């Protein structure tokens, strides 16, 4: 097996979660806590870089008259965000193409299969993968505490204690509690909480004017996240990618933060 995960330096923060080459199959697995229809384009960039490296490493002649053999790409996305999604769906690069006539096959395509791994979804898959099912239960418990207005750290702590007591990911959580807490607080559930606030802001905006609701539920939290990323030396483009926001929005908020400091 060859690990082919690309480093942050290549993708400016758009690092893929896990990729490996085994038995002539090039596997790309990614986790997403938000729905992102642009994943096929990201996958295309990744596969292009890895296949180029594969050809170079084996010194394959692509200019000869013999068909070369390449590993078969497989692209899976594990989604557990707050927005509703079916158990399974296929994202296609061709969906992004301008004015593609019905029935016409484009010269370029990349397909990503997205699996909803929230609790209650993909029951057959969950039944065959106990750890994935337990992880879904763990995340659902954190969200449950957040819905009951616990702060993020308390929500994670309570969920960890509860899962250990009930034998859910117990070995992992007991042995690596601090590491799990750090990961959840700094990365994954930071996005979950942000999504919840954004959705709350949208709902409030629907009732009392979109701008007010969106500002209250989203912008304040977004500014906090931007400040954290700036302290780590991230660029505007990196912050936009990490927070999955429009770069123009991030740039405007950075300007506001800087003007408030003057």
Outline of the structure:
The protein is of the alpha/beta class and 262 residues long. Helix content is 55%, strand content 13%.
Write the layout of secondary structure elements.
Blueprint: E1 2-3, H1 8-11, E2 18-22, E3 25-32, H2 39-57, E4 72-79, E5 88-92, E6 111-116, H3 123-128, H4 130-147, H5 152-166, H6 170-175, H7 177-208, H8 210-231, H9 236-243, H10 247-261
Parallel strand pairs: 3-4, 4-6
Antiparallel strand pairs: 1-2, 2-3, 5-6
Helix pairs in contact: 4-5, 5-7, 7-8, 8-10, 9-10
Q: What descriptors fit this protein?
A:
262 residues; alpha/beta; 3 domains; 6-stranded mixed β-sheet; 6 strands; 13% strand
Query: What is the CA-based Rg, rounded?
Result: 21 Å
**SSE string:** EHEEHEEEHHHHHHHH
Task: Say how many strands there are.
Answer: 6
Low-confidence stretches: 5-16, 204-217
Quickly count the helices.
10
Question: Order of strands in the sheet with the most strands?
Answer: 1-2-3-4-6-5
Helix content: 55-70%
Q: Classify the oligomer.
A: single chain
Mean pLDDT: 82
Strand content: 5-15%
Summing up helix and strand content along with how strands pair, one would put the structural category as alpha/beta
Q: Alpha-carbon distance between the termini?
A: 54 Å
Q: Any idea what the shape is?
A: globular
Major β-sheet, in short? Answer: 6 strands, mixed
Overall number of domains: 3
């Amino acid at each position: 097996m060859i690990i082919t995960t690309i480093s942050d330096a290549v993708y400016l923060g758009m690092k893929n979660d896990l990729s490996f080459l085994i038995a002539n199959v090039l596997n790309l697995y990614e986790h997403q806590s938000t729905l992102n229809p642009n994943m096929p384009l990201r996958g295309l960039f990744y596969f292009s870089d890895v296949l180029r490296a594969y050809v170079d490493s084996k010194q394959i002649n692509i200019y000869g008259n013999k068909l070369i053999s390449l590993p078969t790409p497989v692209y899976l996305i594990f989604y557990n965000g707050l927005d509703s999604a079916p158990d399974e769906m296929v994202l296609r690069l061709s969906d992004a193409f301008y004015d593609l006539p019905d029935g016409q096959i484009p010269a370029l395509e990349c397909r990503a299969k997205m699996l909803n791994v929230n609790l209650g979804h993909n029951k057959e898959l969950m039944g065959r993968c106990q750890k994935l099912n337990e992880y879904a239960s763990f995340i659902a418990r954190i969200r449950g505490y957040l819905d009951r207005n616990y702060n993020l750290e308390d929500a994670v702590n309570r969920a960890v204690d509860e899962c250990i007591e009930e034998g859910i990911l117990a070995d992992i959580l007991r042995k690596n509690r601090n590491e799990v807490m750090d990961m959840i607080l700094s990365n994954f559930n930071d996005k979950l909480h942000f999504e919840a606030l954004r959705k709350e802001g949208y709902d409030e905006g629907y009732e009392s004017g979109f701008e007010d609701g969106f500002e209250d539920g989203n912008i304040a939290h977004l500014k906090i996240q931007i400040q954290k990323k700036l302290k780590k030396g991230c660029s505007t483009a990196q912050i936009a990618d990490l927070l999955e926001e429009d770069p123009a929005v991030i740039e405007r908020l950075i300007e506001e933060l800087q003007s408030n400091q003057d």
